[in-house]
Fold this protein.
Amino acid sequence: MPRKRQRSPGEKKALSYAKDRRNCYRANDKASRKAIPLRKAKSHRADRRKAAGALATYETLDEETAALTENALVKDIARTKRWAKCPDQPLADHIADQQVHRAHREGRKQWVRLQFELAKKRGHSGMSWQWQGDPESSWVKSH
């Protein structure tokens, strides 16, 4: 049996960034353990209800319609409640998003500190401005 080729640490890291995934839905990641099976079960139940409803009227249908209904049930053509899990975010994209959010938070913190210092110099006890920019184009960097 041939041995696997050993990868360098850089190759391992690049492969990890490409293949690993992270939950990006802003919900508790532990909740997925229950939510995913529940959603799948609900879609399967809905399919079974639809099939049961079609079979309830099966005996009153004419031959052509009955054959079409049977074929649709057997071949599973008209599934209405199909549910599939969306893939999680790739690790590389997740890390890039984290860096963007971190830079935004840091820019906001610098801006707030500067505004408090300016308010103290003017003799004010508080401030009424709000941070609304990214750190690259912020007022803090230009002054």
